[in-house]
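for the recovery benchmark. tokens below, seq after
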């Protein structure tokens, strides 16, 4: 499914605009249209990284949806923008849960994740493992230097959006997204490995 395109009789972008205007029925009508896409995003994350997670894809979708309903965004630009915000929320949920789970464990290890997973690395290639909490901390530092690069990582890694979908959400070119995605991954790897 292409995130930038609306489907159905009531397009996602129109329903988002109605929600912003205060229509209490808009989010109810929106949920069936976005649920499948949110489920696909969450399912992809858990297929890549699910080992050791205490939350399943359905739980993540429901928790993210409730937080999305509470969002007060000045203007939902389009469907891709909406899913970009969903990526930020999913990141926050997963990182908060990882922090809480390992806060009381001295010397405990957080879930190990693959930073290269968003590129759908084939099974015969080596996989870099990263700590979710460490990634979140490094991503926060990256955002201080480049908010756009941090958003690209969130949308590619946490939401599984394609380069083209991220470019649409950010209003930039796919070439820029590819370049900044490569730079951001390299920067994060150096930050996390001390190299």
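predicted aa per position
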């Amino acid at each position: 499914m292409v995130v930038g395109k609306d489907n159905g009789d009531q397009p996602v972008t129109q329903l988002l605009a109605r929600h912003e205007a205060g229509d209490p029925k808009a989010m109810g009508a929106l949920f069936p249209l976005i649920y499948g896409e949110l489920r696909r995003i969450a399912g992809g994350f858990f297929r890549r990284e699910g080992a050791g997670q205490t939350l399943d894809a359905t739980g993540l979708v429901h928790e993210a949806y409730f937080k999305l309903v509470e969002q007060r965004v000045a203007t939902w630009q389009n469907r891709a923008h909406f899913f970009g915000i969903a990526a930020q929320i999913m990141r926050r949920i997963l990182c908060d849960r990882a922090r809480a789970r390992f806060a009381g464990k001295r010397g405990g290890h957080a879930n190990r994740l693959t930073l290269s997973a968003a590129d759908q690395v084939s099974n015969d290639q080596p996989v870099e493992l990263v700590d979710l909490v460490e990634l979140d901390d490094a991503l926060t530092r990256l955002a201080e230097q480049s908010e756009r690069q941090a958003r690209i990582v969130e949308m590619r890694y946490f939401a599984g959006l394609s380069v083209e979908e991220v470019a649409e959400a950010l209003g930039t070119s796919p070439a820029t997204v590819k370049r900044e995605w490569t730079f951001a991954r390299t920067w994060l790897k150096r930050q996390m490995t001390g190299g």
